[in-house]
Amino acid sequence: MTEEVAIIGVGYTAASPVTPEVSYREMIYEAAVKAYQDAHVKPKDIKSFVCLSEDFHEGTSIFDEYVPDQLGAVLKPVHTVTGDGIHGLIEATMHIQTGLMDVVAVEAHSKASNILTPFHIMAFATDPVYNQPLKMHPYYIAGLEMNRFLLETGNTREHCAMVVQKNRQNALDNPVAAYGAQVAPDDVLQSRPLFAPLSKLDTSLHADGAVVMVLASAKRARELSDHPIWVKGIGWCSDSPSLENRDWAQAVYARLAGDAAYRMAGIRNPREEIDLAEIDDTFSYKELQHMEALRLCREGEAGLLLEEGTADLDGDLPINPSGGTLGTGFLYEASGLYRVLELVLQLRGEAGKRQLAHVNTGLAFSWRGIPTTSGAAIVVSNN
Amino acid sequence: MGILEKVADNRETKAWYGDIPVQHLYTAGVAGERFLSEIRDNGKILGTLCEKCNFVYVPPMIYCERCFARLTEWVPVSHKGVVESFTVGYIDMDGKPLPEPRVMAVINLDGATSSLVHFLEEIEPDDITFGMEVEAVFRPKGERKGSILDISHFRPVG
Fold first, then answer.
1. Within this chain, do residues A245 and A300 fall inside the same structural domain, yes or no?
2. Which end of chain B is more exposed for a tag (fewer CB within 10 A), N or C?
3. What CATH number does residue A359 fall under?
4. Measured between alpha carbons, how far is A303 from B77 in angstroms, rounded to an integer?
5. Per-residue pLDDT tens for A307-336?
6. How many Å apart are CA B19 and CA B23, to the nearest integer?
């Protein structure tokens, strides 16, 4: 990276299936207060604010106007990116690299429990002329992709079930995660089919929560923080938006986003140089697909890594020690920030019962969800 | 804790119902207009060819998303093709069980590079295989509206 940038503060609420007691603003406020305290900054020290949201998820048009107050960003440079939280971290990193801003905050949240028609909104994101007339629950897209991915790679439904078992087990040790559980692979295989081969337990469940992160230039990071987590590489990419022209087996968007981040971080062999990874697992098969696309294993070998326990907490390359999205919950734009949050806690040595030994470099990767082919990657390190 | 006090009594939590008043028109466009009219009027499926990329777009586009060239060459593609992927759907948009499972498939029509996503019917889900040959079933001419649903579904050939 040309100008070094670090994450110097994180603030978050624990993900929860419902949060009737607080508004989205109060959730964000809570995360912001914690993040600013963690970063030893006050709102006046923050030069720019980057938020992530999508009008239809908020129930308000021009929602991006509703973010300054709960962040201490009134009368400050603030704008919204429509993407995942990691897209926001990338944006903040570039703000700092311009030299115009030395401290930048990023915010993403989910008040999913307030969305009464989530799958209508998701279907509304598909092509209005060619796809919407089919009037189907949009998970058909995951069912189609899962089936083709398993066929081409030789990974199996059993491997997908092992992802669910691992991530929901990991979530039991994560106080931030909403869906910790002991799930046997057979439970997954026998759970209700939604869009076969995709079953109910192959899918993540929604949760509410907010995350705020504070990033700073190298100079400010060293002044303010005892444990800065350095941004080493960033990358993001979108495949064709149309269902008709996309790759139905491989996550090409993840391959290219990951490669860009690795190149910037000087990583030649991700399998050896990445100590832990927090990657999108909105659906069980997505973790396997993203592992392969991100070169954490060879194509067709993701399931093998699960079988061998390589991706477990005590394995060589722990994947989603936080519990991932299957264990933490599906938090819309905030999903990626919960992935990065785990990296920050692990690399600081603050991950409690699930703390991994000897971890220095982590990868986070987010996917923007159905029906998109957009992904964002970030490599961070504690040295 | 960021907030001094929170509502701690379930009976006191409040929320307001709202909905979003949105109505739209969607313009099919130059390519979409011709594609949908041809299905409606002649029961034919057209694509556009990018010669440089050797890519036939179905539905057609007037530009190539790969090399960004303007596309002007229209080519008919077959109403038959092969199943690239399929899924058996059990739930409706609200998550409620469908009266009958519904199969959807990714279908690569002969002569096309793109693949259409549509319903696959007239076959038991257990009998579907990757690569099996299927064909488009068009609605009767008088019932066609210039929509992708003028193809009512696909079914196995023969």
1. yes
2. C
3. 3.40.47.10
4. 38
5. 999 999 999 999 999 999 999 999 999 999
6. 12
pLDDT digits (tens, 9 = 90+) for B56-101: 999 999 999 999 999 999 999 999 999 999 999 999 999 999 999 9
Burial of A153 (C-beta count, 10 Å sphere; 0-12/13-18/19+): buried
Give the total number of structural domains in chain A: 2
Q: Which of B72, B31, B41 is nearest to B150 (CA)?
A: B41
* Closest chain A C-alpha to B85 CA, distance in angstroms: 5
What gap in Å lies between CA A212 and CA A74, rounded to an integer? 16
B-chain CB neighbours of A133 within 8 Å are: 147-149
Phi, psi of A276 (to 5 degrees): -155, 155
pLDDT tens-digit series, residues A203-241 = 999 999 999 999 999 999 999 999 999 999 999 999 999
Token pair, residue B113, equals 């590079």
Q: Is A150 in the same domain as A238? A: yes
Report the distance separating Cα A260 and Cα B124, nearest Å: 45
Show the domains of chain B with their CATH numbers: 27-156 (2.40.50.140)
The whole-angstrom distance between residue B143's C-alpha and the CA centroid of its chain comes to 19
Q: At A304, list the tokens.
A: 């093998």
The residue among A164, A175, A84 whose CA lies nearest residue A378 is: A84
Chain A residues whose CB is inside 8 A of the B130 CB are 151
Look at the block and give the residue holding tokens 């969607």: B26
Q: Tell me which residue has tokens 């992904």.
A: A375
Range of the domain at A160: 125-203+231-381
Label residue A68 exposed, middle or buried (CB < 10 Å: 0-12, 13-18, 19+).
middle
Q: Of A140, A201, A250, which to mutate for an interface test with B (greatest number of B Cβ within 10 Å)? A: A140
On whether both A109 and A162 belong to a single domain, the answer is no
d(CA A347, CA A360): 6
Across chain A, how many H-helices and E-strands are there? 14, 11
CB atoms within 10 A of CB B43: 15
Q: Where are the beta strands (DSSP E) in B1-157?
A: 45-50, 55-57, 73-77, 80-91, 97-109, 116-120, 133-138, 151-156
Whether the Cβ atoms of residue B114 and residue B81 lie closer than 8 Å to each other: no
- Best probe of the A interface among B39, B90, B100, by most A CBs < 10 A, is B90
User: Contacts of residue A120 in chain B, CB cutoff 8 Å?
Assistant: 93
How many CA atoms, within 13 angstroms, populate the side-chain half-sphere of residue A335? 31
A240 and B58 in contact by Cβ < 8 A? no
Nearest-angstrom CA–CA distance, A239 and A362: 25
A311 and A215, same structural domain? no
Same domain, residue pair A245 and A293:
yes
State the ipTM, two decimals. Answer: 0.96
Q: Are residues A75 and A109 in the same domain?
A: yes
CA distance A244 to chain B (A): 5
Amino acid identity, position B126? D
